[in-house]
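Subject: sequence -> structure tokens, single chain

Hey, anyone have a minute? Need the predicted structure for the following. Not urgent.
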Amino acid sequence: GGQNGGLFGPGYGVLAGLVSGMLEQLKYGISLQTILWLLAPMTWGGLSGVLYYILKKWIGVDNFIKRIVIYFIVILISALFANIFNTIANVVFGYTKDPISDFKMFLIYAVGRLVSIPIHVAIYLPICYVVCEAIKNVMNKE
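Reply:
Had a minute. Here:
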């Protein structure tokens, strides 16, 4: 979803996140909870697309460093919001469909997910850069 948002815009990114999220949810069954679980993948795609286009205009993409900075900011902020939505989904619904009402559990989920954000950035930044730049080069040659 995130790469699609940066490459093709936020609408396509949201759609890609919706489709990938729905496919993931089919493993667990579709329910009212599905709406909340879909927010994270849709956020990855949609927010990344919006941020990419705003930052591209603001910072510019005329050199390697600027493109890396844009990808870094996009992935960092998208990961933050996607993890917030996943934390809320975990706390409200939990994996067992039993609500988690204990605030300590909320903090455990939130801290665990916040710790994962640098990991997202470290993994996704080089992948996103290589994949997105390669696809852009192919699209520009057509």
